[in-house]
Amino acid sequence: MEQLFSGKVALVTGASRGIGRAIASRLAAQGAQVVGSARSEAPLATLASELNKFEKRFAAAAGDLRDAKFCESLPAKCIDHFGRLDILVNNAGINHVGTIESLPLQAWEETLKVNLTAPFLLTKAALPFLKISGSGVIINISSVSAKMGLPKFPGFAAYCASKYGLQGLTDVTYTEAKELGVRVVSVQPGSTDTDLLKKTMPDTPADLSPADVAQVVAFLASDQAQKINGATIEVFP
After folding, report:
1. Residue 207 pLDDT
2. Helix spans in 83-209 (H)
3. How far apart are CA 117 and CA 125, in angstroms?
4. CA-based, 20 to 30 A from 165: which of 2, 73, 94, 123?
C-alpha cells in the first residue's frame, strides 16, 4: 500500500472498533504512526499487536472521553510516543435513543460530552501541535443525521443535536485554523456496518463498511487532498 503518511503521526478516537479501528489500521498501513484511544484496553491491545508486528505503528491510550482532563492529555501523548502530531480524527461517538419526553438528562449530557465536547477539547489541545506540523489536518466524523433537509429518526434528539453541533464546530475551526496552516474537514457517512448501527437501528441495512469510510478519511488526511479545506464530504455507496 502506498506510504502516504510516512513520518506522520495521527490521533484517532474510538479506535478499538468500527470506523475508528478501520481508520487507525488504514493510516498505519500507509505509513503513519497512530495513537488510538478508546475506553476499553483489551481491544486496543489486540489492535496494537496486529499493527506493531514489524515496527511500532500504534500506541494505545485507554480512557474516557467524558473526562475533560483525559481529552486534554491525548495530543501530548502523541508527542510522548512519537514526537509530533499531524492528523487528528475525532471519530468516537455514542447514541442514547429516546424520545424527547423520555430521554433522561444524563443520557443527553453524556451524548454531547462524547460527540461534541470531546472533539472541542481535543481540537483545542491539538492545535498547538498541528500548526507546527506544516501539514496538520483535523477530520471530524459526523453523520448524515446532521445533513440539512433529511428526515430524522424519532428518538435521535441527542445524537442529531451533537452531530449538528459538530458541524458547527467544524465550520468555525476551519475559519480559525486556516490562518494556522491547519486543514479541517467533516465526513458524513451513510449507514455503516458498526456496532452502533446494530444497537440503535437494528432494522436498518448497512450500505457501507468501516473500510469504505476509512478509505475516504485516509485520502482527506493525505497531502493529495491539501486543497480540500472546510468541506463536508458525504460518503454513500
Report:
1. 86
2. 105-112, 118-133, 157-177, 195-200
3. 12
4. 73
In 3D space, the residue among 139, 167, 173 whose CA is nearest the CA of residue 26 turns out to be 139
Catalytic site residue 159?
yes
pLDDT the model gives residue 6: 96
Distance separating alpha carbons of residues 121 and 111, to the nearest angstrom: 15
H or E segment at 25? helix 18-29
Please state which of the four CATH numbers 3.30.70.360, 3.40.50.720, 3.30.300.30, 3.40.50.300 is assigned to the domain occupying 9-235: 3.40.50.720
CB 16 within 8 Å of CB 47:
yes
Q: Which amino acid is at 125?
A: A
Q: Domains of the chain: which residue ranges? A: 9-235
Cα-based distances in Å from 197 to 19, 64, 101: 11, 21, 23
User: Distance between CA 3 and CA 219 in Å, rounded?
Assistant: 12
Residue 175 DSSP code: H
Count of Cβ atoms closer than 10 Å to residue 72 Cβ:
14
**33 vs 150: CA distance, rounded Å:** 37
Phi and psi for 194 in degrees, rounded to 5? -130, 165
What's this model's pTM, rounded to 2 decimal places? 0.96
Residue 63 CB partners (closer than 8 Å, separation 6+)? 37, 39, 70, 74
d(CA 107, CA 91): 19
- Residue in 5, 129, 156, 159 annotated catalytic: 159
